[in-house]
Every structure is written in C-alpha cells, then in structure tokens.
Design a protein that fits this description.
By secondary structure, the chain is mostly helical. It contains four helices and no strands.
C-alpha cells in the first residue's frame, strides 16, 4: 500500500476498507506501470497476444533447488 494510506487515521474499519479499495482501484485502473509497457494492470490483462514485460526474473532454478 502507498505510504499515504498507511499514515492516515480512520474512525472505523469501514473507512479503512474504503481507503484500501480506493488505493487498489487507482493502482489497477488508473496508474500506468512501466513494467507492462505503460499500461494499467487492468488494460494489460484485457489485451490479447503477447505483452512486452520489462521486469527482471528474480527467481532462479538455484533458489528453487535450495528451497526443496
């Protein structure tokens, strides 16, 4: 969650849930992400075909072997 939502004080749990819903809405439907070719996650999921991805794969086979 973004820091501004974590710093806020809420009168009750319902207000906190509303703030979380708003943050998720902004993240998924309004905020452009460089990792998915400057689309929102919602737009990226609606696309068909291959999507160019810009993130690095951090999980390696070596790490997987160590976990077993």
């Amino acid at each position: 969650m973004k820091q501004e939502f974590l710093e806020a004080r809420y009168a009750n749990i319902a207000q906190a849930w509303d703030a979380v819903k708003q943050a998720v809405q902004i993240y998924n439907r309004e905020r452009l992400h460089s990792s998915v070719d400057m689309l929102t996650p919602f737009e990226a999921h609606q696309r068909s075909g291959e999507l160019k991805r810009y993130w690095k794969k951090t999980y390696s086979k070596k790490q997987a072997s160590a976990a077993e």
